[in-house]
Design brief:
single chain; about 80 residues; mainly alpha; 2 helices; about 65% helix
Amino acid sequence: MSNSNTQPKPLLPNPFNLSDTEIVEKVYVLSHTYDDQVFDNEPLFNVVSNVIKLSTQIVGALHKVINKMQSSACFANDMLDSFF
C-alpha cells in the first residue's frame, strides 16, 4: 500500500558539476549543526571513548601474546642451538 502524499527525497547534485566552493557549502549545510540547534555530544563522546578503551585493551592483549610467542621462539632456538 503506497502513500500518494510521500515526496521523493531530493537528489544530491552531481559533485562533478559543482565548483569546489559549492561542494564545501553543500557538505557544511548537510553535516554541521548551527548555534541555535542543540547538539547532545555526550552519546558521541561515550561511543568514541568506548571504542578507544576497547581498542587499547585489544592491542595490549595482542602485545602480550606476541611477546610470549617471541619468548617461546627464542627459548626454542636456544634449545636447538644447545643440541648442535
